[in-house]
Write a structure and sequence with these properties.
3% of the residues lie in helices and 53% in strands. It contains two helices and 34 strands. A hairpin with a 2-residue loop joins strand 5 and strand 6. The two termini are 20 Å apart. The chain binds 2,5-dideoxy-2,5-imino-D-mannitol.
Length: 488
């Protein structure tokens, strides 16, 4: 935040002060200023969507964690609301109000969250409009891990996620068994206050590396109900500073036991983390995640803000029991000027810039012909001379989509490692990419079943070109649509 702006500045003043930052996303939600991490407490209340988030009002770094709050009628435009939770001196959340969820407890809005330190479960009940929150005197409602884990979890016990079934409350919470792996613990309650520990719902194995490593500690669990199948989603830590990725398992939850059938990394790219999923009134499973910074702490201190929320993503259960992901259709409301192309082809070793299309806030939908996407793809954020550019390239031999970032920025304080998404196309299947570009944010949805997210920080103001690239073979686009996206 510019040094001239006092801490007491209003949300609006803070937003205005940062509005000209070329890296600051324009149509993804982020706080007025300072630090943000996980989405929390997602709930639809009296028709409005409420999004809470891990927030530090004291600067762009993880510390003094509060719950920021915003609301939306359409999932697209958000209104800042007063901070919902702040640490209470002398209370069980004195060192931070960490992640948790929101529950409609027979008409009483209730936040179930992590107090630190040590990590415990706390409650807060809300006023009718969700604007004022009261912490009951009986906090914490769970004072720590179950006795069997007391000396084996290293105190890792956080991020309660609550749902109702058979007239009772159930809760999953993230933990670990040191040297063994991550844990999701299951609890039950009738009143959100008195909790009975049941057993681990899922256990990780730190020594098992395939098909993906599930790390040493599991946080931010979610339980999704798709009828005859359920899904567990959680985020995987390697160490407390190395946050890997969110993963999911689908399977069956029966008699309080979960039998996983299939699993995968939910969003690739090491940028999207700690997602939370809510059930909207219309039945959709809606997910937001934290998009971490890909630049040095020094850079985000200078910028005055760090962290941004992903686009709202709808999750679905596919016929093969994997999860499908797609940005919600409500985002179409932000589309401005658009361009449509059909049957564009490009020969080996060439690239072509789209003459009329430029921008750093765009939505793109590209459908590549099945057999003709060899080593080709799209160019984004390209400067006219190509000095800066970001390439989204499909590599058929490796069966993966790569975002090449080594030329994304001239600034050596930013991460320029490539990031990739495994995607295996069936014979004859087109490669269909749905891309959201929002200044420093890139989210790519591939064939409705896989997602790759990353951050780029071009340093040149003219790095706004868009183009096509055919590197190792010929490419042919069945169609390409590009829209300018409006700011929210
Ligand atoms: N972030 C929160 C924790 C959670 C972690 C702290 C995940 O509750 O485990 O800000 O990013």
């Amino acid at each position: 935040m510019p040094a001239t702006l006092p801490k007491t500045a209003s949300f609006q003043e803070k937003r205005r002060a940062l509005a000209h930052d070329p890296h600051r996303p324009a149509y993804h939600f982020l706080p007025p200023a300072n630090w943000m991490n996980d989405p929390n407490g997602l709930i639809q209340w009296q028709g409005q969507f409420h999004l809470f988030y891990q927030y530090n009002p004291n600067g762009p770094f993880h510390g003094t964690i509060h719950w920021g709050h915003a609301a939306s009628e359409d999932l697209v435009h958000w209104r800042d609301l007063p901070i919902a939770l702040a640490p209470t001196p002398g209370g069980p959340d004195e060192e931070g109000c960490w992640s948790g969820c929101a529950v409609n407890d027979d008409g009483v809005p209730t936040l179930v969250y992590t107090g630190v330190s040590p990590q415990v479960v706390c409650l807060a009940t809300g006023s009718d409009e969700l604007l004022a929150w009261t912490k009951p005197a009986h906090n914490p409602v769970i004072a720590g891990p179950p006795p069997e884990l007391e000396h084996r979890s290293g105190g890792h016990f956080r991020d309660p996620y609550v749902w109702r079934a058979d007239g009772r409350y159930y809760m999953v919470i993230g933990s670990k068994e040191e040297g063994v792996g991550g844990l999701i613990l299951l609890y039950r309650s009738d009143d959100l206050v008195n909790w009975e520990y049941l057993h681990p719902l899922l256990r990780g194995d730190v020594n098992d590396s395939g098909p993906f490593w599930t790390g040493t500690m599991w946080e931010c669990p979610n339980l999704l109900d798709f009828g005859d199948r359920q899904a567990l989603i959680f985020s995987v830590q390697a160490t407390h500073t190395d946050l890997l990725y969110p993963v999911y398992y689908t399977g069956r939850l029966q008699d309080h036991r979960f039998t996983p059938e299939t699993g995968n990394i939910l969003v690739h790219g090491h940028c999207f983390y700690a997602p939370q999923v809510m059930r909207a009134d219309d039945g959709r499973h809606l997910m937001w995640g934290w998009l971490k910074e890909g630049r040095s702490p020094q850079r985000y201190h200078e910028a005055g803000w760090a962290g941004v929320m992903s686009a709202p993503i709808e999750l679905s259960l596919r016929p093969d029991n994997t999860l499908g992901l797609a940005p919600v259709p409500e985002l179409k409301a932000l589309r401005g000027r658009g361009w449509h192309y059909e049957g564009v082809g490009l020969n080996l070793g060439s690239f072509e810039l789209l003459a009329d299309v430029q921008g750093d806030c765009l939505e793109l939908a590209a459908v590549f012909e099945a057999d003709e996407v060899a080593g080709g793809g799209l160019l984004l954020r390209r400067s006219p001379d190509g000095e800066e550019q970001t390439r989204i390239v499909y590599q058929p031999a490796q069966k993966r989509l790569v975002i090449e970032r080594e030329q994304s920025s001239l600034d050596d304080e930013v991460d320029r490692q490539p990031c990739s998404l495994p995607i295996d196309l069936a014979p004859g299947e087109h490669l269909s990419l749905h891309i959201l570009l929002d200044r420093s944010v890139i989210e790519v949805f591939a064939n409705g079943r896989a997602c790759l997210a990353t951050r780029v920080y071009p340093s040149r103001s003219d790095s706004v070109g868009v183009g096509l690239l055919a590197r190792d073979g010929r490419i042919r686009l069945k169609s390409l649509d590009v829209w300018e996206m409006k700011s929210i």
